[in-house]
Amino acid sequence: MDHEASAGHGHEHPPTTIRQYIIIGVILAIITAVELWVSYAGLGAIEIPLLLIMSAVKFGIVAALFMHLKFEHKIMTRMFLIGIVLATALLLAVIALFWNDATDNRVLPDRSESSAPAH
Amino acid sequence: MAAAAHESGHHTSLGVDNRKLLMWIFLASECLFFGTLISTYLVFKGQSLVGPFPGEILDIPLTSASTFVLLMSSLTMVLAVYGAQHGRLGLMRGMLLATILLGLTFLGFQVYEFRHFGHLGLNLGTNQFGATFYLMTGFHGTHVGVGVLYLISLLIGSMRRSGLGKERALWVDTAGLYWHFVDVVWIVIFTIVYLIPE
C-alpha cells in the first residue's frame, strides 16, 4: 500500500524540499510587496503593464511549483491551458464587444427623474 | 482487493490518476467561470454613474494583508501535501490546520470588507461597481469557504482513521490543487480590482 501515493501520480514526487517551498513563499510575498509599492509609486504608463507582469509571474510560480504543474504529466498542463486560453479569449471578446458598443445603456439618475410625473 | 483498488483510483493507459485528471478538468472549467466574472467586472469598470466609486472606498493596505494571508495559506497547503507524500502525518495535519486557519482569516477580512462597504452605502444594486465587485469577490469567497470545508473533512478523516497519510496522499494533493487555484484566481482579482487604478 505504501507505493500507492506515488503510483497514483504516475510520477515521482516533485524534487522540492521544505526549505525550497518556504523560499518560494517568501518570493511570492516579496512580489506582492513590490506590487503594492508600484501601485502607490505613480510610475505612469508602465504601471499597469508592470502590475500585470508581476501578477502573471505570481500566477506562474504558484501553478508550476505549488500545483506541481512543472512536474506533472503534460496532459494536465494542456488541460489547464485550454481553460486559461478559452477564458482569455472570452475576456477579449466580451471587452471588444462592449467597448465597440456606442450605445449608452447606463441608467442616468436624471433620466429616471425626467420620466417621473411632475409634482 | 476491491476496496484497495477503489482507494487508489483507477490506473489509466496514460499513467495519470483519474481523480487528479478530474480535478484538473474541473479547474479548467473554473477558469471559464472566473473568466466570465472578471470580464464582466472589466466591462463595467469605470461605468458607475453614482458613488461610492472604487477609488473612494477600496482599502488597498487591508486587502494586501488578506492577499498575504492567502499566499501563505498556499505555502502551508503545499507543505501539507509534502507531508502527506512523504508519510509525515504530523506535518500534514499541522499544515492542514494552518491552511484552514489562514483560509478562515481571509474570509474574516472579506466579511469585514463587505460590512464596511455596506456601511459606506455600497450594495449589490448601488451601481455597476457594486454589482460586479460583490458578484466576483463573493463567488471567490464562496470558493474559499468550500475549500475550508474540504480541508476540514480531510483533517477529520486523518484523525479518525489515521490513514490519511502516505497511502492517501492523493486526496490531500487534489485538495491542494483546488486551494492553489483559489489562490491564483485571487492573484488576478487583487491586481485587476485593487491595484490597477480606474
Overview of the structural elements:
- Chain A has about 120 residues and is mainly α.
- Chain A is built from five helices and no strands.
- In chain A, helix 2 (about 20-40) packs antiparallel against helix 3 (about 45-65).
- The termini of chain A are far apart.
- With about 200 residues, chain B is an all-alpha fold.
- Chain B has a domain at about 65-198: Four Helix Bundle (Hemerythrin (Met), subunit A), CATH 1.20.120.80.
- The longest helix of chain B has about 35 residues, at about 130-160.
- Chain B is elongated.
- Chains A and B meet through helix 1, helix 2, helix 3 and helix 4 of A and helix 1, helix 2, helix 4 and helix 7 of B.
Give a nutshell description of this structure.
The complex is a heterodimer of chains A (119) and B (198). Chain A is 70% helix and 0% strand.
Largest interface: A-B, 58 and 69 residues
Q: What is the count of β-strands of chain B?
A: 0
- How helix-rich are the residues of chain B, as a percent range? over 70%
Helix content of chain A: 55-70%
Provide tags for this entry:
heterodimer, A: about 120 residues, mainly alpha, disordered N terminus, B: about 200 residues, Four Helix Bundle (Hemerythrin (Met), subunit A), elongated
Helix and strand topology:
The complex is a heterodimer of chains A (about 120) and B (about 200).
Chain A lengths: L3 H6 L8 H24 L5 H20 L7 H26 L9 H7 L4
Helix pairs in contact in A: 2-3
Chain B lengths: L1 H7 L9 H26 L10 H4 L2 H26 L3 H31 L8 H34 L7 H27 L3
Helix pairs in contact in B: 2-6, 2-7, 4-5, 4-7, 5-6, 6-7
